Every structure is written in C-alpha cells, then in structure tokens.
C-alpha cells in the first residue's frame, strides 16, 4: 500500500507517526499524582499529599496553546500580554537591528570584496570582533546607549553583521573575471557594473549570509530579552519561569521554533529567487 | 603603403618569469588588418595569441607598442571592439534574450525598449535561435547554442572590430561545423572586420581571408601571413575540392608542425617585425607534383 505513495507522502506519514509516538511517550512518562485519600497516614505526614510541580503533559500544553493562540493580542498590563504581542516585539527588535546591520554590512562587504587592500586592512578587525558572543556587548551597550530597548537592538545589529559582511565580501571577490570582462567590453561604468553584473553574480552568496544572520539574530534575541526584560518572547519565557508556569514555558519554546522556521523559510524563498546555474 | 584599418605596431609583451628575470612572450610584433577582412591567427599554446587578443580588446596592456584602430590608439575596452570569449561569457542569471539585450542596451542607450528587444531578437534569429528558446537561461542551453548567443550578442552591437577568442574550442566537431556555417552566414551579410584565434587549421581555411602564423615562444613572432586564395562563398564540402585547399593546408601543417618550433626563441633584431606575405595559388602557377608547397608556389610579395 505504501509503495503507491510519493516520497513526500511517505515522509509526511512517517513525521506524523513520530509526532504521535513522541507525544504519547511524553504523556505516559509524566507520573500520575496519587490522590490524597489513597495515601497512607505516614505518607500524608511526610507531605507527599501536596501537589508536586511536574513537567506538564502535552495535553496541557495543547490546551494552553489553544487558549493563547485564540487570543494572541490581548494586553492585560505589563506582565500579562498575549503571545502575539510578545513575538511582535521580538520580531520588531530583530528586524530593526538586522536591517541596520544589512545597511552597513552589504555596502562595506562590497568594498572589501572589490579591493584587495581593503580586504587585508579590514580582515584583522573582522577576525577579532566576529567570535565575540553578542551578549558580551550588552554591558557596554547599556552603559553607552543608556537604554535597554536600544541595547537589545544593538546586540542584534552586532551579531547579524558578520555573516552578511563576510559573505558579501566573499561573493563579490569571487565574481568570475569573465563576467567582469563582459561589463568592461560593454563600457559599463563602475556603478552600473556593480548593479548589473557583480550584484546578481554575488547575490546567492550574499543571501546565504543574510540567511545565516537572521538565524543567529533570532537565537540571540531570546537571550537578550531575558536580560533586558520588559517585553518580547525571551522575556515571556523567563517571566513564565518565574511564575512557575511550565506549560507556558513549553508553549513559548515551541513558538520560538516556529517563528525561527518561518524567518528562515522566507530567506530560502529569496535564495531560490536569486539562484542561478552556471 | 597606406595605414591599414587596424594596425599593430611594435607590440612587445614581457612578464616577470618568477625568478627575478623577465620572459619575453613576443617582441616588436607588427601587422595590420584591413577593413572588412576576416583574419585568423594560428599558433601553438603559449605563443601569446591570447595576450594579443586581450591587448586588442583593451583588457590587457602591452609592455610596449601600440594598437591603432582607424588611426586612433586603443586604450582600454570599448564597444567598438566586440569580444566573443571561448567560455561564452554569458551572464547566467539572465535569459538568452536578456543577455543580448544587455549588450544592445549598452551599445545604444538611447533606443526605446521595444526597439532594443526587436534588434536583439533579430540577431538571435540570425543564428537560428527563435521562439521559446530565447527565454531559457544559458545553463539550459547546449554549448553550441550558448556560443550562438554569444555571437549574436557580439554582432548585434555592430562593433568596428570583432574579436573571437577560440570561439569553438569547447565544442564537438559536428556542432563546430554548424556554427562555423552560421558564423559565415551572419558575417557574409556585413562588412564586419574579424580577428579570430583558433587551433583548428580547417576552420581557419574555411573562414579566413588571411591566416597569421605565429612561431612558438619565447620571442614569438607573427612569421607569415598566408592568403587564402579560395573564392567565397565557401562551403565546407566544396572547398576541399578546390586545388588550393590541400596546398595551403599542407603549408600550414608544415609550419605548425616543424617551422614554428625551429623558429622558437629566435630573436631577430629589428624595428618592425612584419610577417612575410605568402600567397599560394595553384591556378596562377602550375604545381610541381612532388613538392607542392616549395618556392615555385610561394610568390612572396612585399
């Protein structure tokens, strides 16, 4: 029967089976709480009758998800906002830091890629700054910028700049000399060459860098928001941990994954649009 | 002698040889090309053909010497000198049609869009590319089709001089034949001056008015300029019947196989090393059967 199905259909069935089995194992692994009347007197004296905080079963998480997703944008004060609002804040921070990084990294990467001298001059700075954990910038950013919101955006900026910068420089430097010669024999000016030949030739490498950057930015925003607090999905996770609401913690972890996947697939679409075969 | 349309004067190219010295690829090479002429240059790899081509295209600078076209010195690349590269050099992210439009737009920036497109389609049709094919990307075309696009792009720009750098080098023999015919056809309708590098003797005889023969490097030089005394229009199956065909061919084979090596490294002191003109014409001078390409047939003028 399975033989008649396409590879995609078979993979979908397998995924579904894995999901259901995983959820069942999870559900079954949560020990049932004994009801108080079933306990011996000794057990009751030892305090075992009190409800223990355990990892919530998937059924609870699903209920929570339904509840949250059916009203994602409610706002009931600073500590009680809908998941949609929290994610919205996070995306806003990621995108503003990321766009600023792109505005700096892509032109600078072009310059570095076009000129051997610029490449060699910038390289030591890039090599030293790139491996720094973005959160290590946080104290300095808070001190200089004096604003936690802007500091979070700065952290996103600094972590997304490197892959875009390096990939742009690499892509531009690697443009085939033949294509540059085509531009030269057609008497294209340097600006025209940059936009009509070098940019499309380097676009797949540049977009790959942008895709890596958006992934890193989304990883970092969660940690940054745990530090700065106030709003955002990272703050929400930490706040629910403080509330000991593990159901919400698990639900928000899943939401972080889903949003990250959507951001990544948006860039995958872009990547396909600029791809070319030689 | 009046100045030819394209004149290469005392061209010298030296490169550092990596051990502190210099390697002279060619020295004081001089030759000319007339307007409307189809000239092929034959020589072994490394003799500097591609260097000459790059200098003519303006993509490289000679160590010394000048190239003049229409009396003006060539400096840098120009739309007046169109190039067809061996590896096609199409932009892979553009469709076939857009690749040609890219060239036409650069040449005629004032033309309205539909005129540019019509012009591009016209030239693609001349090399046999019509219909849906023009919307395919270069990666979806065969090598022969890609080179056709490249030829269409070059001809559409009406350059004063067309440079072909081993355009058929990467193609199989059958495809090469078809595209040679197409090149002859599209060239026949124009007054286009063509300078072409090739490794293929038969291709050179089929296409050229004149073949320049280069000796091996170092100190390579353009030793001979062989006139192809076979009337046009030529056809690959018919030219082999022409009495001059094999005499010319033997002369070329003998040069490339033997004399180019003997003359290699030979440094001739001189201001202007112009090639010796060789004219082989069986019809003009009767052949001695045993020695078909020895002096009686070589009327050296100049």
UniProtKB/TrEMBL annotation, chain B:
Annotated Gene3D superfamilies: P-loop containing nucleotide triphosphate hydrolases
GO molecular function: ATP binding; ATP hydrolysis activity; nitrate transmembrane transporter activity
Subcellular location: Cell membrane
Organism this protein belongs to: Maritimibacter harenae
One of the Pfam families matching this protein, by short name: ABC_tran
Name of the protein described by the UniProt record: ATP-binding cassette domain-containing protein
Annotated NCBIfam families: ntrCD
GO CC annotation: plasma membrane
Stretch list, region Disordered: 266-302
PANTHER family, A to Z: NITRATE ABC TRANSPORTER ATP-BINDING PROTEIN, TAURINE IMPORT ATP-BINDING PROTEIN-RELATED
Span of domain ABC transporter: 6-241
Nucleotide-binding in keyword set: yes
Record's keyword terms, sorted: ATP-binding, Cell membrane, Membrane, Nucleotide-binding, Transport
Membrane association type: Peripheral membrane protein
Residue stretches of biased makeup (Basic and acidic residues): 266-279, 291-302
């Amino acid at each position: 029967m399975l033989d008649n199905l396409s590879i995609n259909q078979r993979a979908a069935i397998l995924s579904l089976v894995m999901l259901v089995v995983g959820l069942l194992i999870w559900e079954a692994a949560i020990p049932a709480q004994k009801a108080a009347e079933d306990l011996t007197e000794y057990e009751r004296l030892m305090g075992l009758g009190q409800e223990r905080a355990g990892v919530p079963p998937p059924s609870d998480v699903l209920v929570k998800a339904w509840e949250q997703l059916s009203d994602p944008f409610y706002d009931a004060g600073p500590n009680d906002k809908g998941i949609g609002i929290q994610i919205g804040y996070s995306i806003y921070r990621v995108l503003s830091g990321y766009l600023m990084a792109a505005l700096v990294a892509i032109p600078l990467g072009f310059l570095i890629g076009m000129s051997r001298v610029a490449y060699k001059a910038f390289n030591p700075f890039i090599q030293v700054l790139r491996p720094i954990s973005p959160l290590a910038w946080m104290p300095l950013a808070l001190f200089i910028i004096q604003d936690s919101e802007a500091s979070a955006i700065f952290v996103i900026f600094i972590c997304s700049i490197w892959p875009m910068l390096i990939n742009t420089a690499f892509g531009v430097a690697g443009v085939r000399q033949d294509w540059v010669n085509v531009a030269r024999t057609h008497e294209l000016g340097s600006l025209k060459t940059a936009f009509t030949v070098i940019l499309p030739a380097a676009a797949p490498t540049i977009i790959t860098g942008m895709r890596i950057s958006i992934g890193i930015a989304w990883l970092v925003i969660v940690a940054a928001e745990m530090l700065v607090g106030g709003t955002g999905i990272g703050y929400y996770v930490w706040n629910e941990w403080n509330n000991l609401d593990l159901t919400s913690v698990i639900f928000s972890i899943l939401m972080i994954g889903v949003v990250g996947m959507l951001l990544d697939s948006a860039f995958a679409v872009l990547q396909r649009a600029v791809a070319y075969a030689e | 002698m009046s100045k030819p349309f394209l004149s290469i004067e005392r061209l010298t190219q030296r490169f550092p040889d990596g051990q502190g010295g210099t390697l002279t690829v060619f020295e004081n090479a001089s030759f000319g090309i007339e307007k409307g002429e189809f000239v092929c240059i034959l020589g072994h790899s490394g003799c500097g053909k591609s260097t000459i081509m790059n200098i003519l295209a303006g993509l490289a600078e000679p160590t010394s010497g000048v190239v003049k076209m229409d009396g003006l010195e060539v400096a840098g690349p120009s739309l007046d000198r169109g190039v067809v590269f061996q590896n096609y050099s199409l932009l892979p992210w553009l469709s076939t049609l857009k690749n040609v439009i890219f060239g036409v737009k650069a040449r005629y920036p004032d033309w309205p869009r539909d005129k540019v497109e019509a012009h591009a389609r016209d030239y693609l049709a001349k090399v046999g590319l019509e219909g849906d094919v023009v919307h395919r990307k270069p990666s979806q075309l065969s090598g022969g089709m890609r080179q056709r696009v490249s030829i269409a792009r070059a001809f559409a720009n009406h350059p004063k001089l067309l440079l072909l750098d081993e355009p058929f080098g990467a193609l199989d023999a059958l495809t090469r034949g078809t595209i040679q015919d197409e090149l002859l056809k599209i060239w026949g309708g124009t007054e286009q001056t063509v300078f072409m590098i090739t490794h293929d003797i038969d291709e050179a005889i089929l296409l050229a008015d004149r073949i320049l023969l280069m000796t091996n490097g170092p100190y390579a030089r353009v030793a001979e300029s062989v006139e192809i005394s076979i009337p046009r229009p030529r056809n690959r199956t018919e030219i082999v019947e022409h009495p001059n065909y094999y005499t010319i061919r033997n002369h070329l084979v003998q040069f490339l196989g033997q004399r180019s090596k003997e003359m290699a490294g030979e440094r001739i002191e001189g201001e202007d090393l112009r090639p010796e003109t060789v004219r082989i014409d069986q019809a003009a001078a009767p052949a001695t059967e045993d020695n078909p390409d020895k002096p009686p047939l070589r009327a050296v003028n100049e």
